[in-house]
Specification:
By secondary structure, this protein is α+β, with helices and mostly antiparallel strands. 17% of the residues lie in helices and 37% in strands. The protein is built from one helix and eight strands; from the N terminus they run H-E-E-E-E-E-E-E-E. Strands 1-2-3-4-5-6-7-8 form an eight-stranded antiparallel barrel. Strand 4 and strand 5 form a beta hairpin.
Length: 120
Amino acid sequence: MRKYSIYVTTVLLFISMILVSCKKDAQHMEKGTRFIQKNAAPGFGSGDENSQAIILTLYPRGEANLIPGGDVGFASKYKIRGKKITVEILPPNEPLKLRFTVVSEKELRGEKGQILRLDE
């Protein structure tokens, strides 16, 4: 009987350690969080419609709006895993998947060297 109680206690301690040490990867977004690319090439004109900057707005429940340059935004979805954010444009639009690394709460880095900063 004593062996059984030691075994149960050990298993319960192990499970509680796992539950305590787990942390949630995704940030909780109460409202839209907007990031704007700071190292984009300048557009041909002076208006925003010619800008090549990526603008990414993250909303709750994995919803996003992605403007991959220009003035047209696409409904998208995102997933956060650790320090990686994957953004995917939803159909019926052409498929596009962008990946970013979270540098800090205010900065993201793209796979192709894009630097996106929090729009404050």
